[in-house]
Write a structure and sequence with these properties.
single chain, about 110 residues, 2 domains, 3-stranded antiparallel beta sheet, 4 helices, 3 strands
């Protein structure tokens, strides 16, 4: 008996074939379409790796190539990750004032020409 991956319902019917000829199914409870034994499912570890690459600011095209995910999936997942990031990171920039030399802040700086 087939079970819906999202809804965990047993109300599954056939829904034609995919472009690649695999049997497509649909859940009558949540209307989710899926293919049984799909080899393209992204694991939890894979999502953690993608999250780490997003934090490292690797290009989106680079992530799709290295992780083998589609750009559509990556954009949807990245928006979820970015929405979970707090707007205020509570960064303290007081240390920056201590590092800069007050002489460099003068407005009378003339560029060598």
């Amino acid at each position: 008996m087939l079970i819906c991956p999202s809804y965990t319902s047993g109300k599954i019917i056939k829904n034609g074939k995919t472009y690649y000829g695999k049997q497509n199914h649909i859940c009558k409870g949540c209307n989710r379409q899926f293919v049984v034994n799909n080899q393209r499912t992204i694991t939890y570890e894979g999502k953690q790796d993608v999250s780490a690459l997003l934090l490292e600011r690797v290009s989106l095209r680079g992530i799709t190539r290295s992780m083998g995910v589609s750009m559509t999936w990556l954009m949807a997942y990245a928006s979820i990750v970015w929405n979970e990031t707090p707007q205020d990171l509570k960064a303290n920039f007081e240390w920056l004032d201590k590092l800069t030399d007050k002489r460099n802040r003068s407005t009378n700086y003339k560029s060598p020409s």
